[in-house]
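We now fix the convention by which a protein and its fold are recorded. Think of the row as the fold of the chain written in a discrete alphabet. Here is one such record, which you should read through line by line.
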Amino acid sequence: MIAIGCDHGGYKLKEEIRKYLEEKEIDYKDFGCMNEERVDYPNIAKEVSKCIQKKECEKGILICRSGIGMSIVANKFKGIRCALCHNEFTAKYARLHNDSNILAMGADDITVNEAICILRMWLATEFEGGRHQERIELIKEVENENMK
């Protein structure tokens, strides 16, 4: 199951992503927003991140105008590795090397087609493990030292 959330700037792209997930019969939980009325993105990012932390959903997608704010908030949560991706290359390596569990995208930075390609690559790519797992363990150490 995928948790998905956006602010008002990412609403239109989120709706297109939802359509894609439905077409591919991928289950998701929508944390809003549900229209283009102004909302505060930290609240949406918080809910999606908590859902991943609690293992209610395996992965998440966050969308705002740039993707930056959403990714900053998500990465404040222990165990969250949110990657802001702009293309298929960054999506592939976010999963392959960094085991990203939340994908952030900027609605003003990419087209719907590009977003679908990014999402498809991110979902299809498995974590490589090996030396990269060692680095994930180092990230966990940093979290344990600094997220008390």
